[in-house]
Structure formats: structure tokens, C-alpha cells
Design a protein that fits this description.
single chain, mainly alpha, 83% helix
């Protein structure tokens, strides 16, 4: 490939890396806001998500422009296709962070048990974002188990008492959003595997 292509591709990778960092930070900001009941968290997360949306659009445009103007083949094309797919998943994760932040005002002060579950799920999904190229299948399974455990605790409390009903429903929603972020992280890892190996592993039995 030409020097112009390499320069454009390097610029794309730099922007793509920055998107990863900002999405990770926004997920963390949203979940920390739940525990601290930060009334300003929703506004901060939403504002950052607008920037994430802009970066996602620019990355998509850069990918399509590289394909149209340089006609990459083989590994080069595979890399760009993988970035396009991962880019979409990262944007969706950003949207889920906004959904989490919108529930903050509905959540009352968390009991230690709930706080521990939220914190553990946050740590798992952030770990997946930070280290997508290793052990993603196991991490995704652990996130699913944590969501099931969290939901079981809340449903049990709802049966015992209807106190703080809206707050508990909001917590269920937050757990669902975090579990979905974990699923999207697995999608991203599958695309990274495709980018490296050229093999689609989606739908395979493990």
C-alpha cells in the first residue's frame, strides 16, 4: 500500500483508539454516578456521548473513504471491515452508558449488597473493554452470572417488600444495560479475532 494509505490508516487507528478510551471512561462515569447518586452525572455522560457519536461517524467515514480511494485487499481490507463493525458496537456501548445514567435519579441510596453487585459488574465490563483480546468468552459468562445474581436479589426483595419499588426497578434496568455492554464487548472481541486470523467465529460452539 502507498504512503498516503498508511498515513490515513494510522490516523484512523489513532482516532479508533481514542474512541475506545472515551467509551470506557463514559461507562465508568455512568456507573460511578449510580453509587454516588451524582445528580450531574447524566448531563456529563450525555454530553460525552454526543462526542462519541461524532467520533463514530468520522471513523465510519474514514473507513469507507479508505476502501473507496485505496481499494485495500486481503489483510488491509479485513482490518478496515473489523474496525467498522467494532466502531458500531462501541457507539452502542456509549448509548447504554447514557441509559444507565438516566436511571440515577430513580435510584435511592444503595444497600452494601446492591452496591457490591453494581461495582463488580462495572469492573467486569470495564475489564472487557480494556483487555478485549484475551479471555473474552469467560468474562462474558461471568457478567451474565453476575446479572442473574443481581436480579435474583432484587426480585427477592420485591417479593418481601414493595418499599423503594421504583428504585429497585431502576436497578434492574441498570443491571440489564451492563449485561448488554458485556455482550457487545464479546462482539468486539470476535471482530478483533477476525481482524487477526481472518476467521469468523460467531455462532461457533465453545
Amino acid at each position: 500500500m502507498s504512503l498516503k494509505y498508511q498515513e490515513a490508516y494510522d490516523k484512523l487507528l489513532h482516532r479508533f483508539s481514542s474512541l475506545f478510551v472515551h467509551v470506557e471512561a463514559n461507562v465508568s462515569r455512568a456507573v460511578l454516578g449510580v453509587g454516588s447518586q451524582d445528580a450531574e452525572a447524566e448531563g456529563k455522560v450525555t454530553a460525552q456521548d454526543r462526542k462519541i457519536d461524532e467520533w463514530e461517524t468520522k471513523i465510519e467515514e474514514s473507513c469507507l473513504n479508505l476502501i473507496a480511494t485505496h481499494h485495500p485487499v486481503a489483510g488491509d481490507l479485513r482490518n478496515i471491515v473489523a474496525i467498522l463493525k467494532i466502531n458500531t458496537d462501541l457507539e452502542h456501548i456509549g448509548d447504554l452508558a447514557v441509559s444507565v445514567s438516566k436511571k440515577i435519579k430513580e435510584v435511592e441510596a444503595l444497600s452494601p449488597d446492591y452496591q457490591d453487585k453494581i461495582d463488580e459488574m462495572r469492573d467486569r465490563v470495564l475489564s472487557m473493554l480494556k483487555d478485549l483480546h484475551t479471555s473474552f468468552i469467560q468474562l462474558d459468562h461471568e457478567v451474565d452470572l453476575l446479572e442473574d445474581s443481581g436480579k435474583a436479589s432484587i426480585f427477592s426483595d420485591l417479593q418481601a417488600s414493595t418499599d423503594a419499588f421504583e428504585s429497585k426497578l431502576a436497578l434492574l434496568s441498570i443491571l440489564r444495560q451492563l449485561e448488554r455492554i458485556g455482550d457487545l464487548c464479546s462482539n468486539i472481541a470476535e471482530n478483533i479475532y477476525y481482524m487477526i486470523k481472518g476467521t469468523i467465529i460467531r455462532h461457533k460452539q465453545w
